[in-house]
Automatic annotation (TrEMBL), chains A, B:
<dbReference type="GO" id="GO:0015937">
    <property type="term" value="P:coenzyme A biosynthetic process"/>
</dbReference>
<dbReference type="GO" id="GO:0005829">
    <property type="term" value="C:cytosol"/>
</dbReference>
<protein>
    <recommendedName>
        <fullName>Pantothenate kinase</fullName>
    </recommendedName>
</protein>
<dbReference type="GO" id="GO:0005524">
    <property type="term" value="F:ATP binding"/>
</dbReference>
<dbReference type="InterPro" id="IPR043129">
    <property type="entry name" value="ATPase_NBD"/>
</dbReference>
<dbReference type="Pfam" id="PF03630">
    <property type="entry name" value="Fumble"/>
</dbReference>
<dbReference type="GO" id="GO:0004594">
    <property type="term" value="F:pantothenate kinase activity"/>
</dbReference>
<dbReference type="InterPro" id="IPR004567">
    <property type="entry name" value="Type_II_PanK"/>
</dbReference>
<dbReference type="GO" id="GO:0005634">
    <property type="term" value="C:nucleus"/>
</dbReference>
Length: 282, 282
């Protein structure tokens, strides 16, 4: 993200990611590069901020500055949308999944909106203003479920970086996910790709269904989906766009953001040192 | 169900069940016993009423009298509750899953209520009167998903009749179902029982979460769970009772019915020959 000004400094923001299972490698690298000589604290949010606090102290002699997960998420979303006009998009022609296309969306008047954060698990927030939001629902069936089930079902040990795009797209309505899989004849006929696809579609549809109910409940027509589950995962995004459009008969809009999984990190940066961040968000 | 009067005949209703994968055995038995000499039509509902229509005609020369799945479900529920005062119950002390207990519930003033039918898939209805209801939501993650996923995950080919009760009960809140299962070290440490339990808890919690949102949406405080998924499945029922009570802070009541999976069949019987069933339900 270029030409970003934060606390009178202008520059580019770069985003990288790694699974927390690689944290010990990160700590070794940071130690060898003398990271603690440059900074004394690292901003962190989410469960990892608590889980790895001791390791940062012991290995690097650095503090973790911990921030609230949902606060930072929303601050990050609002900041990035304001500073990066190409941030928000939707899928044009959402009912035709194979041919739906990304289009820019003007999110300059954001409120109210539903924010669905799909990480390992899923949180759903209703956002009425920069400091006015509530967590309205959640589900434990998220990206972690997809990865875990996929590995269990397909026998692959690790599918990070796997090529999601090779899985086909669903044609028909599903009455019962995996519903035939107790039948041993049918079990023999499914491929690993079928199982991975079924898992992706099942998890995605469930999230879409819950998001739609929450939007109805709150009488809000914009639903913004973020989180690392959506990274390089156009199948899920297109499915979510389709599901929102179809089940709401066009009255709900599924929106997506280009920096889908980094808003918590960005929000941490903005909140660091308790600086007044009101100026950064509308 | 004893001392039931239907069209001036009084007797006991007996309920039996078998999976539709056994339908050819049922047809053979019916043929050998001369079932077609006694009756000319069998009442049926659900997808099977369409799927097996030809087989009944070819094998037995019998018609299937097909009835709407949701109509018969509701008629069956209302009839059985009216004729069997011990039909409806709840779990007392729902927050303490290990010690919660079945207690009779007076369902004589039923309306409005949410009806959650957990079969292979799940349908959620808002019921305002005997002929006034709407389907408000549904999910494909139901009993079929549990059976299918369990068989895929545990390697068992068929777990019908499996002893669900041996699976343990959950203690902690789950952030991401199966969330650690992409980690090969952790994958090696889980047993088949753990995986079956995780599947049961995941499916059940998801159903509970959707039911709660629907109840909020419709401003209805009674949620009746039925369907064959709940048969000999006190773990799921207690989990649902716990989830409803906990997440609603006591304002939602989870109710259950003793003939959980037979209301569609009962509703079919009542509707057969287009008889006026108004007298059978309140």
């Amino acid at each position: 993200m270029d030409d970003v000004e934060i606390r009178n400094r202008t520059g580019s923001l770069h985003f990288i990611r790694f699974p927390t299972s690689e944290m010990s490698n990160f700590l070794s690298l940071a130690k060898s590069k003398g990271m603690a000589d440059l900074v004394t604290a690292v901003c962190a949010t989410g469960g990892g901020a608590y889980k790895f606090e001791k390791d940062f102290m012991h290995e690097l002699n650095m503090k973790l500055a911990k921030f609230d997960e949902l606060d930072t998420l929303i601050k990050g979303v609002l900041f990035s949308e304001l500073r990066n006009t190409a941030e928000c998009y939707y899928f044009h022609n959402a009912r035709n999944i194979r041919h739906s296309e990304k289009k820019s969306y003007d999110f300059s008047k954001p409120y109210p909106f539903i924010l669905v954060n799909v990480g390992s698990g899923v949180s759903l927030l209703a956002v009425y203003g920069p400091n006015n939001y509530k967590r309205i629902s959640g589900t434990s069936l998220g990206g972690g479920t997809f990865l875990g089930l996929c590995c269990l079902l397909t026998g692959f040990k690790d599918i990070y970086g796997g090529d999601y795009a090779r899985f086909g797209l669903p044609g028909d309505l599903v009455a019962s996910s995996y519903g035939q899989m107790h039948n041993k004849d049918k079990q023999g006929k499914v491929s690993r790709e079928d199982l991975a696809n079924a898992t992706l579609v099942t998890i995605t549809n469930n999230i879409g269904s819950i998001a739609r109910m929450c939007a109805l409940n709150e009488k809000i027509d914009k639903v913004v989906f973020v989180g690392n589950f959506l990274r390089v995962n156009s199948i899920s995004m297109k499915l979510l766009a389709y599901a929102m459009d179809f089940w709401s008969e066009g009255s709900l809009k599924a929106l997506f953001l280009n920096h889908e999984g980094y808003f918590g990190a960005l929000g941490c940066l903005l909140q660091f040192n308790n600086s007044d961040i009101a100026e950064y968000i509308r």
